[in-house]
Specification:
By secondary structure, the protein is an alpha/beta fold. The chain has two domains: 196 residues, 3-Layer(aba) Sandwich (Rossmann fold); 119 residues, 2-Layer Sandwich (GMP Synthetase, Chain A, domain 3). The protein is 36% helix and 18% strand. The protein contains eleven helices and ten strands. The strands form two sheets. Strands 2-3-4-1-5-6-7 form a seven-stranded mixed β-sheet, with helices on both faces. It has a three-stranded mixed β-sheet with strand order 8-9-10, with helices on one face. Strand 5, helix 4 and strand 6 form a beta-alpha-beta unit. Helix 3 packs parallel to helix 4. The C terminus is likely disordered. It binds guanosine-5'-triphosphate and magnesium ion. The site of magnesium ion has 2 residues, from helix 2.
């Protein structure tokens, strides 16, 4: 017997424990999550229903699957962890963002948006859930704006597609359009989203019915694909060939006598793909021209559906660039024109995140 009170046989116990523990085999910590998907959207869009649909996909897998709920870092966000084939998917179910007029006080509205912002910052890929039965509203616009500012890969997920299609056909009852096809309705909705949220015009759109799990697997595959896209590296040779082509197609318009010149381009980071353009005079490359470059990059480089960060630097800043982010003037443009992200590019990051590789 062992008695803690008088120390009887404690040494034997310690030996027995030591003999049974091989510290080399013990996991030092939980494995790093491979893909973190934030599900955000306005209230009642179907976020939790989608998370449950994802869980059903993973549970139906004949192979061993672990589904566990881990309380999120904020009170009302939940990290749900899935594992399959040694790969980990963490889905953050975020509390819905409400309209201001639904708020009891202004503070509550602020906190629901604040929690969504936090989930977006943590995510590798954002699934922005849109209620297909309603027009876009203020929470959608605020969320989309923030996602763009953070340069996050985003999939626009139109949910409740079952209801949306039924409603659209009902409205058209008695008109030649009453049997409008699913494809046509999707095209119309996609067009509507990209017109209303031009800063996310590059984002792919998925149409799902979360309650039936319909098209949910395809949405997950797309999220995975966006993650890979955002983590690609383009060699300097290829990049400079592309930038030459773009510059030859169109040069920035400048006052007479000033000659804009591009010295060279190089990709300095992934997620978001970050491209530095060294030029003779950054003043000659305005936001409009930067937007043009980013859009052409999206056509000519394999970054078609993800945000791209462009930095313009002068020739004297080349030294600085070798110690990324150490200073220097920089300008940047996203698709909708030069919004600055909340954090400076080249900010120090946790090593674990930079080293993460996209999974297969
Ligand atoms: N017909 C239909 N109903 C849906 C679908 N997805 C969700 N719903 C319903 O929409 C309602 C809201 O779903 P939730 O999953 O709770 O929405 P949520 O976004 O998590 O809501 P909050 O967390 O409060 O922001 C529920 O009644 C769901 O059954 C869908 O694809 N089709
Ligand atoms: Mg919910």
């Amino acid at each position: 017997g062992v008695s803690a009170l008088n120390g009887r046989n404690i040494d034997q116990l310690v030996q027995a424990i030591a003999a049974n523990i091989d510290l080399d085999k013990a996991p030092a910590q939980l494995p790093e999550p491979q893909l973190l998907v934030a599900i955000v959207g306005k209230r009642n869009a179907g976020k939790s229903t989608l998370v449950n649909a994802i869980a059903r996909i993973y549970e139906d897998d004949p192979q061993r699957v672990i589904v566990s709920e881990v309380p999120g870092t904020t009170r009302d966000s939940i990290d749900v962890r899935f594992e399959k084939d040694g790969k980990t998917l963490v889905v953050i179910d975020t509390a819905g963002v409400r309209k201001k007029r639904q708020m009891v006080t202004h503070d509550l509205e602020f906190y629901s948006f604040h929690r969504a912002q936090r989930s977006i910052r943590r995510a590798d890929v954002v699934m922005m859930l849109i209620d297909g039965t309603e027009p876009l509203s203020e929470p959608d616009r605020k969320l989309s704006q923030y996602i763009a500012e953070q340069f996050k890969p985003v999939l626009l997920v139109v949910n409740k597609w079952d209801l949306s299609v039924a409603k659209a056909r009902q409205i058209r009852a008695g008109t030649p359009d009453e049997n409008i096809s699913d494809e046509k309705l999707m095209q119309e909705f996609e067009q509507y989203l990209h017109t209303e949220m031009p800063h996310l015009s590059f984002a792919p759109v998925a149409f799902v019915t979360a309650t039936e799990g319909k098209n949910v697997q395809a949405a997950l595959d797309m999220a995975q694909h966006l993650f890979k896209q955002a983590n690609q590296r383009i060699g300097t040779g290829r990049l400079n060939a592309v930038i030459k082509q773009i510059f030859e197609q169109r040069m920035p318009s400048t006052p007479r006598g000033q000659r804009p010149k591009i010295l060279y381009a190089t990709q300095v980071d992934v997620a978001p793909p970050t491209i530095v353009l060294f030029v003779n005079d950054p003043e000659l490359f305005d936001a409009n021209y930067q937007r043009f470059i980013v859009n052409r990059f999206r056509e000519l480089l394999p970054f078609g559906q993800v945000p791209i960060r462009l930095l313009i630097r002068g020739r004297d800043e080349r030294q600085i660039e070798s110690q990324r982010g150490a200073g220097g003037q920089e300008s940047q443009a996203s698709a909708d024109g030069g919004q600055r992200p909340a954090e400076a590019p080249g900010r120090p990051r946790r090593a674990s995140r930079t080293q993460r590789k996209p999974q297969q």
